[in-house]
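Milestone 3.1: sequence recovery, worked example.
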């Protein structure tokens, strides 16, 4: 089934679980800490400049954004986690909303893949580890995208990618894609994985 990724629009920014779309479409969710580059990545793979808004204040967004791709697929942008300056009340809203996506999403059976973003320079943080452990426990398929690889020299890049791939939470089959929204590296590989898991 051919998919026109240019035909993408924001369906809803959901602040409550009851607002999640119920269309019978496959879903691919994007998870990662605040400022890891989720919005930039989504814009890059869709070939758009500002469909996903890049916040100048990390941790500001506390909604789940559902992007409708050609009426065939939802790309689901989960709120960024791990931002220290977020108020306690907001952290509670974030955690309950994200938890609601996995526990109150009527179409959770249509979740085909979670794209787990990790800052290549930083590596897998404690917050990332918690999310990956959750995905392992729930047996939800996921891949790792190591973002901002253009900010590292070749030696440091290779060292960090090896460190990520050797993390005890990941198995040998876990796909790890080096990605840069600045150069476009990894865009083709990521789209291939998305279409493979969604059978599109």
């Amino acid at each position: 089934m051919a998919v026109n990724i240019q035909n993408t629009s924001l369906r809803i920014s959901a602040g409550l679980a009851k607002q999640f779309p119920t269309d019978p479409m496959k879903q691919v969710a994007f998870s990662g800490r605040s400022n890891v580059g989720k919005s930039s990545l989504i814009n890059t793979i869709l070939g758009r400049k500002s469909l996903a808004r890049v916040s100048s204040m990390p941790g500001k967004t506390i909604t789940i954004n559902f992007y409708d791709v050609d009426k065939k697929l939802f790309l689901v942008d989960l709120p960024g986690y791990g931002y220290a300056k977020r108020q306690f009340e907001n952290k509670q809203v974030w955690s309950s909303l994200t938890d609601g996506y996995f526990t109150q999403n009527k179409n959770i059976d249509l979740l085909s893949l979670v794209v787990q973003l990790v800052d290549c320079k930083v590596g897998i943080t404690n917050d990332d580890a918690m999310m990956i452990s959750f995905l392992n426990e729930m047996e939800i398929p996921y891949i790792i995208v190591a973002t901002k690889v253009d900010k590292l020299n070749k030696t440091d890049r290779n060292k960090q990618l090896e460190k990520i791939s050797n993390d005890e939470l990941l198995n040998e089959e876990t796909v790890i894609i080096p990605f840069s929204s600045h150069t476009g590296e990894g865009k083709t590989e990521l789209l291939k994985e998305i279409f493979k898991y969604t059978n599109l």
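Residues 8-198 form a domain with the Rossmann fold fold (CATH 3.40.50.300). The helical segments are 38-46, 88-103, 126-138, 154-165, 187-198.
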